[in-house]
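Let us work through a complete example step by step.
Step 1: write down the sequence.
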Amino acid sequence: MKNQILTFNLKQPIIATLVLFMASFSALQAQTTTSKIDKMTEVTYPGTELTVDGSIKLIDNKGTVKYLQTSNGLTTLTNTGETTDVTTTTLQLGGTLTANTYIDVDDKVFAFDGIELETGDASTDATTKSDHGTGSGYTFLVRDEATGAIKKLLLNDLGVKGGVSNETATAGQTEYTITGAEELSLFKTYVYRNGIKLIATADYTVASNVVTLTQTGYQVLAGDVIEVHFLN
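Step 2: predict the structure and record it as tokens.
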């Protein structure tokens, strides 16, 4: 049998794979950490030019036969063709998770460097469990606090909601309760009087779900239309 050389190839894209390591699939059991794992079909030498996965037969310096294999998000690629002088098996990041997989960072940093800053459009055609290359635009990755699973979320579903309120004022009316507003903040609340934007702080203030007009330099007249745009 030809000599078996093991190499570790970490040049494959790792971001998607490591994120997948943290994902959960409810139909499968958790990854095996305490029990035996069955031996896979052994790689045949010589075989085709390349063999993906399977168990690799090894012989140590005492002549003991052993096997090496990967699973659950890792892939082995073995050169098995007759024209290859040395049979080489490369272990790579990338593959299919076969069980629920959890990484306990134990208060350590788990991070990615070299991530590009994206400024593109939100996805309009994202679907559940889609593969890359089947949609366009961008979605968010979020964490399910109940299970720890990593999932994707449309930008439109981030929970940022708002609305528009129109009210016809009575003479001198300063307070306007905004239906649908949960907690108004000044920099996300825009107030218009008869279509003219008022100046925040100088012309109006906000608290809870109430807009208060200061009437500084102007007077609210009966029939004035007070329009409020807000984001929660």
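Step 3: interpret the result. The chain has a mean pLDDT of 81.
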